[in-house]
Please model this.
Amino acid sequence: MSRMTFIDNRVGYTANIVNKPAEYEDLIVESNDMKIYGESESPDCPNNGGFCHLYHKSGMISPMGLWSGKDLHIASKSPLPPHNTMSISAWGTKCIFNRLEFINWNSTTKNGMKNNVFVISEFNSDYTPMMEFHDTKFINVSADAMAYIYDPPQKWAIIKDCGEWPCTGPQNALFSFKNT
Model:
């Protein structure tokens, strides 16, 4: 994926890739020349009261490589959210991001909700692939807005998957930045 712009997104950009059914084959997720902006001037809760939607927001959710899942371009009605997965991870996934720009990120939204550049996917219990960033720019980004990495929920403690302890995919995230 290349040359895309994201502005003031609730969930943010992600790229999930499916490898049917080979777990260890190489899967490449590559994104180039993208701009990802934080909160815009468009209010989530307008002064006239018309509507109000309070959400935690993110610029980018960690990608996943999976054994099975939805097509890249979903052509039929699909349960929301579209980045939800019901598959185990494919271990050969490699994520490369070239020349991304993250612009205007504060740690909270104007309404006090979390606002992070990077968030580990809430559906990624098994494995978070390494994310390699090259020539990345952070423009007007607060240090405490950089990343939200959470503790795995207790409901992920399934005997057949990870035993008595929750799977630790979110805690094993690795971000590599070169020429940033």
